[in-house]
Amino acid sequence: MTELVLDGHKLLWHKERLSAWMRGERIAPITIDCALTRSCTYNCVYCYGKLQANDEKRMTKDVIFRFLDDAADIGVKAISFVSDGESTCSPHLYDAVIKGKSNGLDMALGTNGYLLKDERLEEILPALTYLRFNISAATPDRYSQIMGCSEEYFGKVINTIKECVRIKKKKNLSVTLGLQMVLLDQFKDQIIPLARLGKELGADYLVIKHCSDDENGSLGVEYDKYFQLVDVLKEAEEFSTDNYLVKAKWSKILSEGKRNYSRCFGPPFIMQFSGSGLVAPCGMLFNEKYKKYHIGNIAETSFKKLWQSERYWEVLDLVASDKFDACTMCGSLCLQHKVNEFLWNLKYNKTSLEDLEAKAPMHVNFI
């Protein structure tokens, strides 16, 4: 687990694409983060998806498979089914994971786990690079309060995690099984119990991350309160062993929700789709009110055609220009944040492409 990067980026292991971008060439994304639907069975207190409403399109099996073919064809390396919806709500999830893997793509899934079918785990686990369970509490009552669901859901999810661990061990699979806690000050009582629970379940890691908010502070995240949690987070990390990693995303948790860059250079490398099929530079810009940044929809136009279109590059050039201020015009600490920090420093000669360890980390194509 020491090779698992949970607070950083992996762009340095993609020098060829970095160099092409530096030369001004149009590159395919390395990673695409997307959902297969905007639906969800939960109503989490911290859900950013509530702020991402946009025109829903129908993500049929044909649409999803065409996208996975396009992604492989243009040189995308990894697909993570995460984004703004719960992809287990889609009847096409299992086929999509297997199809993506057969296309040579690294596949990953982030889920609350409630709708995951235990009887189909043996099909998808060998095809996944990682499976991450979003779980922000370690007891049924707190789970229900924080994640907006019935207390009964907790037991089902725990049993599914156990089944994943059992299958991984039985079949000696390489898939990484992780847990993720989205942290707010009012959840601090669950930090240590979750660190303990992950270890008991046999998970590979627990990552504790910040909560993102939009530019208007709609979710009411108080970033200054994270500083009061440093000691308990360090205590949680002490549960780590050679086979189990507990990691707080320190660089974001202690950032006060601020950026040290003003332009968004990350989307050419890590693009996001909404569960509606909408293609936009990032999830922060999915909402209909950001329509000027919307590129198209894969339910209407193939991703390959969108990627080849002038509209795609006009939008990406716009968010990378001085007409867009990442500090004030979009939400806090986005998916592309660490990539943006690195690319900002690279663009303005504060770092170079020479600093590279010989051994690539785990999940290298999920940048």
General description of the model:
This protein is 31% helix and 13% strand. The chain is an alpha/beta fold. The chain has a ten-stranded mixed β-sheet. β6 (205-209), α8 and β7 (245-248) form a beta-alpha-beta unit. The mean pLDDT is 93.
Features:
367 residues, alpha/beta, ten-stranded mixed β-sheet, 12 helices, 10 strands, 31% helix, 13% strand
Task: Label the structural class.
Answer: alpha/beta
What's the mean pLDDT score? 93
Spatial extent as radius of gyration:
19 Å
Strand element count: 10
Instruction: State the order of secondary-structure elements, H for helix, E for strand.
Output: HEHEHEHEHHEHEHEHEEEHHH
Q: How widely separated are the two ends?
A: 17 Å
Helix content: 25-40%
Low-confidence stretches: none
Beta strand %: 5-15%
Largest sheet: 10 strands, mixed
Number of distinct helices: 12
Main sheet: which strands, in order across?
7-6-5-4-3-2-1-8-9-10
Question: What general outline do the C-alpha atoms trace?
Answer: globular
